[in-house]
Amino acid sequence: MKKNKKFRIGKLFTYNKDTLDYKSVSYWWVSILFTSVFVITGIAFFLYGRYSKINRLTDYEKELLIVNINTNDDFSQEKLVEMLEDLNVKYPYIVLAQARIESATYTSRIFKENHNLFGMKQATLRVNTAKGTQYNHAYYDNWRESVYDYAFYQSRYMSAAKNEEEYFYILGQSYAESPDYVIALKNHIQRHNLRSLFN
Asked: Residue 38 sits in which domain range?
């Protein structure tokens, strides 16, 4: 009769019912098996995330995805106002105030070099038009892509706002870094009569 083998924790064995014996399993093929399973699972999760993200798009986001962006379009506030109206952005005078404050009235480095009107960071959990990150902010090929990105942001995170005050509240809680951000927006809207720029 064969002597009983010592079993060590963490070691793998196969059992031979004909010889009533256990045989130690070589680790090299086990490690290959686990690595393969890990890689395949990772790829599956990545593909599922991409697929499900597209399927979770709102109708508004799907419409924005098929737009043709004119990359040779110089910026002006009049064009921005027109675009906000064309996209049917909610509370466009608030969004315009954000653009003016975040871009230091269209003079900041983030706006001039990143084409980023709203001080947006590159999004990871929603559809976006950013090409990457530069100076710790999203950058775009042109200013219109920045507006589309804000529209995606608004569609995804601001749709719950039922009125202007709720919109301001959500901005104060999730968008702003300064505790006085909402006050600054309200003052800017009033001082520059931004409501009058929209129908």
From this structure: 13-55
